[in-house]
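Tokens for Putative conserved secreted protein. Go.
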Amino acid sequence: MMYVTLLYIFLTLLLCNGLTVDDTPLAAYCRRALRPPVMIRGEYVVTCVYLCEGLPFRFSREHDGTRCAAFIDGYTTQGYCKDGECKVQEAARTKQ
């Protein structure tokens, strides 16, 4: 039993050590590995970068123009995805 536990720990460290969006190559558009955990009113994505299905681990960006939620000063502001980042719309920015 101890060997199995050590094997799991080793594999976890091997797969997850230093795995970040910056270190992992971006793929062309692909299927999501997981459905977004949080959907705000079912219309927005929370992040504009997501994990792709399958191995090796890789990430992809949402299509430009996909609506997203940007959190500014504790409030949710409507934005859109552009180059993997959630940009706040100019109309929302001028109201604050």
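Strands lie at 49-51, 59-61, 67-72, 75-82, 85-88.
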